[in-house]
């Protein structure tokens, strides 16, 4: 049976296409779809399964948000200096030793899901584990694949890169590598810098919080989003984060939480501070109302994150399996009841873009429904 599928894949129609002067070979998989490399054919049945049974028919809902968070918490669990003896391994050796985006958060869910910074991540680990068990894919590949597919369900998202070929993790991540919302910006930037991310790339990665909510920052209000449009990959997170904080949406101040601009929105200290710190405020502001810039820089930063600690020379580019996201819906705006006077200008070298508010009185943002 396996031999038959392999033969079909190998005998698959190979089409030589000339596009923009470049010749690309495409194969047609046994399932009918075309892709650049026969090795990517295994992904189409997984794509169908997760769209139907993990993402509720292709929604940009809670499981997509959690799957994107998981890509980060798996990948950032990598350090050239912490948790191992640096004298035994050079950085280059470590890169080839695995770690990072290696699926260890699932393979070694005990202890990783018990780390404080991974609070709540067990939900999506439990949800993804059966999919890995019924398909021929490693946990590391599955986590990044599910993240990229999930993001494609959100209007306005870039089409993320996906490389296939992460080996099974051999050890859990050391504790203490995932940033917490009460960390200082210096420590957040140092943590990311240790694994090769600039401050600009850190801010670009935080575009992820445009399709995000918190269950555990204030456990009395689970599903409270970070911006007013958690089902759309728009720039509202960069706009609304610059509004003056005026209230706590739930039971008051919790660790890592600061005042929000609107009822129904929760704000992390790290996000609010990145939007106001001299090292990052102009980068933060540059994404407000600039969908194309946010898309391309988030895509580039995610491409790095998704292969952190992995040897890309051993991986196959299967990006063409990822669905093309729909364009963004709605226009960049201030929430109803707000005005430009509510913007806390932080960037010293350029003004915040002028935006108009939605009509009507100030409203409360509803929670992201559990599915
Ligand atoms: C300074 C770095 C970061 C900090 C401190 C941080 C912190 C948090 C916290 C506290 C939550 C709420 C968890 C809960 O209570 O349920 C959260 C949610 C989330 N984070 Fe981050 N995060 C950071 C960076 C990132 C990055 C780089 C990504 C992805 C590339 C990401 C993606 C998400 C997503 C998608 C959610 C929403 C999960 C859901 O709705 O269930 N975060 N983050």
TrEMBL record:
Residues of the site described as Transition state stabilizer: 69
SUPFAM superfamilies the record matches: Heme-dependent peroxidases
One GO BP annotation of this record: cellular response to oxidative stress
Sites where the protein binds heme b: 209
Region listing for Disordered, in residue ranges: 351-371
Ranges where the Plant heme peroxidase family profile domain occurs: 68-351
Location of this chain's protein in the cell: Secreted
Required cofactor names: heme b; Ca(2+)
Recorded GO CC terms: extracellular region
Listed name of the protein: Peroxidase
Source species: Mycena albidolilacea
């Amino acid at each position: 049976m396996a031999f038959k599928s392999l033969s079909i894949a190998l005998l698959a129609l190979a089409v030589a296409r000339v596009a923009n002067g470049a010749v690309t070979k495409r194969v047609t998989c046994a399932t009918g779809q075309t892709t650049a490399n026969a090795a990517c054919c295994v992904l189409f049945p997984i794509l169908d399964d997760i769209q139907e049974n993990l993402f509720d028919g292709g929604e940009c809902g809670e499981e997509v948000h959690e799957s994107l968070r998981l890509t980060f918490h798996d990948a950032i669990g990598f350090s050239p200096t912490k948790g191992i003896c640096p004298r035994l391994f050079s950085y280059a050796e470590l890169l080839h030793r695995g770690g990072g985006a290696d699926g260890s958060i699932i393979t070694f869910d005990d202890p990783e899901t018990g780390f404080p910074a991974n609070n709540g991540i067990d939900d999506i680990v439990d949800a993804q584990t059966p999919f890995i068990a019924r398909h021929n894919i490693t946990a590391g590949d599955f986590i990044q694949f599910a993240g990229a597919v999930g993001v494609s369900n959100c209007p306005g998202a870039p089409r993320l890169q996906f490389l296939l070929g992460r080996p099974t993790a051999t050890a859990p991540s050391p504790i203490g590598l995932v940033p917490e919302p009460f960390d200082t910006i210096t420590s957040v930037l140092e943590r990311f810098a240790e694994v090769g991310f600039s401050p600009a790339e850190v801010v670009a990665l935080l575009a992820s919080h445009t399709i995000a909510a918190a269950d555990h920052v204030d456990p009395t209000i689970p599903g409270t989003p970070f911006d007013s449009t958690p089902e759309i990959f728009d720039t509202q997170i960069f706009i609304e984060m610059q509004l003056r904080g005026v209230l706590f949406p739930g039971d008051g101040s919790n660790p890592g939480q600061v005042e929000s601009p609107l009822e129904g929105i929760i704000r992390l200290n790290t996000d609010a501070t990145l939007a106001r710190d001299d090292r990052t405020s102009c980068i933060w502001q540059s994404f407000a109302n600039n969908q194309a810039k946010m898309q391309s820089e988030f895509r580039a930063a995610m491409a790095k994150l998704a292969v952190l600690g992995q040897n890309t020379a051993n991986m196959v580019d299967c990006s063409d399996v990822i669905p093309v996201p729909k364009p963004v819906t709605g226009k960049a705006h201030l929430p109803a009841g707000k005005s430009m006077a509510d913007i806390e200008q932080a960037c010293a070298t350029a003004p915040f873009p002028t935006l108009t508010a939605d009509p009507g009185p100030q409203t409360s943002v509803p929670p992201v429904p559990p599915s």
